[in-house]
Amino acid sequence: MKYRSTALLTLAHTATDVNQGAIPVLLPFFIAQHNLTYAAAAAIVFTTTLVSTFTQPIFGVVADRLSRPWLMPFGVLLAGLGLSCVGLAPTYETGLIAVALSGIGVAAFHPEGARLANRFAGDKKATVMSIFATGGQLGFAIGPFIATFALLRWGIKGTAFMAIPAIGVTLLIAFILPGLWKYHNTSEGVKTTQKGQGIDFWGAFILLSILVLFRSVIFYGINTFLPLFWIHVLNQSKAAGASALTVFFASGVVGNLLGGRIADHVGLRAAVLVEFAVLSVIFPIFAYTASPSWAMLILVPIGLMNSASVGPLLVLGQSYLPNRLGLASGVTLGLAFSFGGTMTPFFGWIADHHGLRTAIIALSLLPIICTGLTAFLPKPKTAHIEH
Known about the structure:
mainly alpha; Growth Hormone, Chain: A; 2 domains; 17 helices; 82% helix; 0% strand; globular; disordered C terminus
């Protein structure tokens, strides 16, 4: 395990996903700037989510077949520059184009970033992948704070500030990250990229992909409806709702880091199975809880268990497709943080017609499906990955 390289990759992941985390904060300013309806504003979030969802696997295939290491720094740069132009866009349509370009940058980064993280991991793959995935979670968490600072100081044109961290981190990883260019340019690197280290197990990977999509829906569902649940169901203040979301994110970061270490000791499938099984029990309890204090207490293990599986699932995906690490990473890591956003309108419909608690109850049943899917995951063909 190469700590310096892992830290740089994690920083790059944070700098990339900061832009996705910042988008919701931009909406009120963008609405005022262009006199938009709520539906038109929501299309901004939907656009970046949709673009990332569909282009991420494509970039994964490109990374596997053509081995383009520049996609990673390019992704960081485009994600930041695209978002920085949103506030400078003269029309709503050009703003959508800027958001779409940012989404393409996010999609370009993940496959190459995860491939390189896999190379630097050594025999601690789940640990390193969990640390790498934590970078994305931190990006989502701090993105709103950075964007809020810039927007309150400079107004809608403050989005230009988002280009600064993107440019800085791009230069850092392009010129300092050890082995970034060497690995892809040596004959050993090309050989590894082309031939891989085993047999691709497509059936297992498809099953894993379905599991990842359900986990994504759980994450986005909680992220979207948790503050509303706190305010309208538990009758708490908006500040309390924001605090609940902070607790969920903070618990998720800790769970992500712990999940990788646990999986490296007890095995990938065993760790994921236990995590989803525990979530299947505690999430429904949370959905029926009427006490804000108990709800906040239960929210901690929900955040822990929901995020602990991210790193192990990423490594499992790479182990099922050892010859296509880019594609495996683009699906298991990229879709894990994008697909769920396309499903939130469905749970919003449930909330509109049957109440917010019913929507949370429906969401709380998904970990049961994830537990069942995990139980059917076969042992990876690459024996050294599973313990």
